[in-house]
Amino acid sequence: MRKFKIQAYIQSLNTGLIKSTYADEITVLKKVGDNDYIVDYKGVKCHAIYNCFVCSFFVDDVYGIVKK
Fold it and tell me: Which has more confidence, 44 or 62?
């Protein structure tokens, strides 16, 4: 899988589907599970899920930070 940049919902920004715009840009680094991805958000590696019903990534930069 190649890295790519995309707009995503970020947990720490308290965005959700109620808002009509995306929150911020992320870089998807790799897929680690069926619906689990490691992404880079402003230099922080964290987990994200992809919601196929709304075609969007949801990044958990609060509880899902990847420790080295």
Answer: 44
